[in-house]
Amino acid sequence: MSGEADRRFMRTALLLGERGLGACWPNPSVGCVIVREGRIVGRGWTGRGGRPHAETEALRRAGAAARGATVYVTLEPCAHHGRTPPCAEALIGAGVARLVVACRDPDPRVDGRGITALREAGIRVDLGCGAEEARFQHAGLFRRIRDGRPLVAVKLATSLDGRIATASRHSRWITGPRARLAGHRLRASHDAVMVGSGTVLADDPRLTCRLPGLEDRSPVRIVADRRLRLPPAARLLADAPRIPLWVLTRADPPREAVRTLEAAGAEVLPVAEPFLANALARLAERGITRLLVEGGGELVAALLREDLVDRLHLATAPLLLGGDALAAVGALGLDRVDAATRFLPSEDLRLGGDHLALYVRKTEESSCSPALSPISAASSR
Predict the structure, then answer these.
(1) DSSP 8-state symbol, 339
(2) Which residues are the active-site residues?
């Protein structure tokens, strides 16, 4: 099969992989297509909660047509026994002839073992088609395995002069309805969404996904609240029995406040200092790979000061609020411009008069763009 055909089918696999983002943690969201004689005979993506795996679902749909076929998968097939048998064994048993893998799985239980097992079984394995796009899609997995923390994406909706509310804290609505829909799509594509306690006190958000058709894709809601200021009447607590709510607080929280939150359905997670680094590590231990941070300004500034922001989703509305309005990002304490974290543009579009842009930190993933980002997906609905 030609290189162009390989790229086309791998792009289809990447688009399928996008479907599971935010719904299958702690597993990565993998896409897979099975091709025979130039025609797709099976396709799959990682299911909710991580099961079924993309390869086994694609094999199920392909049936007998998988024998002698070429399989395109966005991440190396697993080679270890977990809650299900290894996907490498399933592919071998199905009699596929060739496997095209975008990138290796960094999980030490896999990390080349799946590819080796397939090659030893006589299956041709080609590695690297769509590698940059796949690393972008699986960046949460890479962060969790290699750095012990989730991928951190900050979402800001601001005026042209970088403000998120007037001096009286009025903020509804800076951006228009289409940009807000894109924001809900972002929530659906992340495992968890986090805000600081100040944002809860000021805005009383729900942090749910209310995009039509994706109402069941609300992420875990997380509040960074060292002093346990979350009020009993907060809307987050009203939804806590139905949608998980985790409260990150200091290592020795007041017992009465903890009991009140837990009685309302929240889970309180004490975190030692340094608070942010240990909080992210705690989230990674619980399986979170993709974390969306929606504010406030002090929390975002703290993450930037500690160089913990990987992506920036910026929605800019065509209006000015002035110097007395509330800034989107708190003080960073920078003495020099070259000390600031540098982000590179990755995607750019207009939605109903607003400007939506995705920026990525200058790392190994920054040279590529997503196959279909949450922003693009929202704009196409």
Answers:
(1) G
(2) 55
234 phi and psi angles, rounded to 5 deg? -60, 140
Q: What residue spans of 121-168 are helical by DSSP H?
A: 131-137, 139-147
Q: Return the bridge partners of 360, or none.
A: 311, 344
Sign of CA dihedral 85, 87, 88, 94: positive
- What is the spatial distance between Cα 107 and Cα 125, in angstroms, rounded to a whole number? 19
* Nearest-angstrom CA–CA distance, 209 and 216: 7
Residue pLDDT, tens place only, 101-160:
999 999 999 999 999 999 999 999 999 999 999 999 999 999 999 999 999 999 999 999
Contacts of 139 (CB under 8 A, 6+ apart): 151, 310, 365
How far is residue 369 from each of residues 33, 45, 357, 359, 380, measured CA to CA in Å?
Answer: 21, 20, 12, 10, 17
Tell me the sheet residues that pair with 256.
Answer: none
The number of beta carbons lying within 10 Å of the beta carbon of residue 260 is: 17
pTM of this structure: 0.93
For residue 186, CA distances in Å to 72, 267, 314 come to: 26, 24, 12
